[in-house]
Specification:
By secondary structure, this protein is α+β, with helices and mostly antiparallel strands. The chain has 13 helices and 14 strands. The chain starts with a helix and ends in a 6-residue tail after the last helix.
Length: about 475
Amino acid sequence: MDRRLKKPLCRMLCRTLCRTLCCMLCCMLCCGLLLPLGGCRGGSYGSITPHLEQRLDLSEPGDLTVSNYTALHSAVLRLVEQGASEGVIRMTDYLGDAQSDVLSACRQVQTSEPLGVYLVEYMSYECVRVLASYEARISITYRRSPEQIASIREIGSAAAFRGALAETVASYGSSLVTDVRYYYAEQYDAPLLCDDLLLADPLRYVATPEVSTQVYPDGPAAGWNRILDITLHWGMSSEALEARREELAETAAELTVLPEESDPKRVLTLIELASERISPASDLADPDADTSYGALVRGRATSRGVACGFAVLCETAGYEWRIVSGMLAGDPHCWNMIRVDGNWYHLDLTAAAPACLTNDELPAGYAWDVLRYPICNGAPLLPEPEPEPAEPPVSGEEGEASEPGEETGELEPGEETGEAGGELEPGEETGPIETAAPDVEPAPAEGPGPSEETIEASGPAEESETNEGPLN
């Protein structure tokens, strides 16, 4: 064939082939797009979603899908959080050794996670291969009841923990379990916080509980999260404690029936009543000696119980108060602060002479946190002075005049009283009374009375003292 004819023919064949291939590809593409739409007539449809990072489907504990170890660990922990006794975790496109990772995840949850350490008694698993994926079938045995698991309270701050503990103390509860996210031992000291809560509400301080705390897990390398299992042993039922509280309130109401007087006088009366009611406890082993109930109802208490009892009286009488936990002569000691007429005062009912004192008036030996309590710098609070009794009338009854000649303390003209108030004999002179010089015996008087010559001779006494010789 001529070259001039062969070249155009090849071009034609190439174009035809390209067109044919393009048409075939378009038909195939159209068929691929239209075939899924044919199922819409039956009520189903398909959708295309963009690829996202894999997340756990936690709507049902038995249907969990993971693809790495982090997601596997979270899935096992979620089974424990939901209290599931069994669960299946699907491991699709898993990156790692499925068998060993399931074992590590179960062990870590049971020994290192606070919730697993607190709840799980035993955990077993079975890893089964299904086509290109695995299924981990987890079985969990718990050491706590479902009610205990449901009662765990999640705590996000120290203030929330104090609030939860305050509710437990106010209701005389016996236990509190919290899941603390960021644990600091100093901020979550349950015995110390319980002690502060009882001092802040002395009307409910009718018994001293034994507070114990178990931390899960217990160790410095366990992270920030902790489970705190707090137990309060009151020594009696909550009903008995409520009956004590009512008895304490009735006793305080009876003791605070005060007269209508000024606040200083009412406070001094309250101090006197409390001092007569409460006596120091001789048996420090008495469990009620530190309580308000022991002070006001039983009448025997330590300094702590005395301060709590007086705080109940102040609360009932309408006075603002504080209970100071400090030191006295190096030993733990408690006393009160009370606000009277806008000023704060110290008051220690265990002192020999209880009185409202300022900081400057407080005796040496007392020590307390001055930043935690108000400053006591008011005026001295002293009892009002009693009026002086009126002087008795001079003579007779009031309003009666003395009769002439009666003794009224006044002398008649020409009269002078003697040693016994009698009258002088006639002829005696009424002159000034001279006292004898020390160590000199006066000369005895002779005769009925001295003559004028004798008086003149004895006149210059100074010359007789300076001249030697006997006196004439």
